[in-house]
Specification:
Length: 343
């Protein structure tokens, strides 16, 4: 597990830089200098400080096309009270566990888990239940992602600044097919630092730089791989995170999910195969904003019911990053959905 130093506070330029990298994670500094109004050398120094302190990072993981139906789930875990921290730390080491949260709600932990097949997801859930400290699990299989966290942005750039950013999002296209062994190696090498240089990647993979450039363009352009820029949550002004389990009439599911995905505070929106057929992961500036969010969606969608909620007490792992008590990245456990659960 790669380790990082303690985080530092952020100023407005730091937040602007992080927001720009959310839109264009591997953009050269020269391309970001104009929209952000500072020179490339300053941006490079800023990012090095944020990255090395664990205050911000760019990671890489498999795109939605690589996760079959039934192979992405949110799992509520109940456990012995004295075992919560140790169990969360143990689960954080699982490559299939994208995120691990200590939560207030009907469960003690909330895991976001991805595998390559429903059979492997079944194996993971069964293995989880065999851990002596675990007293129960409840699995919510994701049917469809309406909004994914890499599409969410901090609100630190003006409209003119956003217009000046390069567009690095993959365009719509046919099914890209499965990730090859060589592409998997590249994606795992990018997980600790999504902005690693081609030279560094070529050295680790023992491949020509031209081959690595072609592979990288292929996995990002096809959507096989996703790059995401994240930051230590307490330093960004977005202090509260909650997962809502929602029930809507099946005939309204598509419309409500799409409209929910478009709301500013919604980080993730997904339809699920449980009584709560829709879930939303919401980030807010404070706890009171969650109540306002719930009141807003209840007013907009008459038949919507919130069945359960899990408020994040502490992130233990967030999309492959081991998170310290201050919200900073303390290391990386690459998200490897292809790893053998039985191992």
């Amino acid at each position: 597990m790669q380790e990082y130093a303690t985080t530092a506070t952020m100023d407005e330029l730091d937040l602007e830089l992080i927001t720009a990298l959310q839109a264009a994670p591997r953009a050269p500094w020269a391309q970001l200098a104009g929209p952000l109004g500072v020179d490339a050398a300053t941006l490079s120094r800023r990012w090095a400080r944020l990255r090395d302190s664990g205050a911000a990072w760019v990671t890489c993981y498999s795109g939605a096309s690589q996760v079959a139906y039934g192979a992405l789930a949110l799992i509520e875990v109940t456990c012995l009270p004295q075992a919560r921290e140790a169990l969360a730390a143990r689960c954080a080491l699982h490559p299939q566990a994208l995120s691990v949260e200590l939560v207030a709600g009907s469960g003690d932990l909330l895991l976001t888990v991805a595998t390559t097949s429903r059979d492997m997801m079944t194996e993971y859930v069964l293995a989880l239940g065999r851990i002596p400290e675990v007293t129960g699990t409840r699995t919510h299989l994701v049917q469809h992602l309406h909004r994914e966290g890499s599409q969410w942005r901090f609100d630190s750039l003006s409209r003119d600044q956003r217009r000046g950013l390069p567009d690095h999002s993959p365009g719509p296209g046919p099914d890209p097919g499965p990730v090859t062994r060589e592409e998997r190696r590249l994606m795992l090498a990018l997980a600790p630092d999504g902005r690693r240089s081609l030279v560094s990647l070529a050295t680790e993979l023992d491949r020509p730089e031209s081959t690595v450039r072609r592979l990288l363009a292929g996995v990002l352009g096809s959507g096989k791989a996703v790059l995401r820029c994240e930051a230590a949550q307490p330093y960004t002004g977005w202090h509260t995170s909650v997962t809502l389990w929602i029930s809507v009439p099946p005939t309204e599911l598509g419309r409500v999910a799409s409209e929910l995905a478009a709301l500013r505070d919604t980080r993730l929106s997904a339809s699920t195969a449980t009584e709560a057929n829709l879930l939303a992961v919401v980030w807010a500036h404070g706890t009171n904003d969650i109540a306002r969010y719930e009141a807003r969606i209840a007013a907009n969608f008459r038949d919507l019911r919130i069945l359960n909620r899990a408020v994040t007490l502490r992130w233990i792992k967030r999309m492959g990053r081991v998170i310290g008590p201050d919200g900073s990245s303390q290391g990386c456990v690459p998200m490897d959905v292809w790893a053998d659960v039985r191992a």
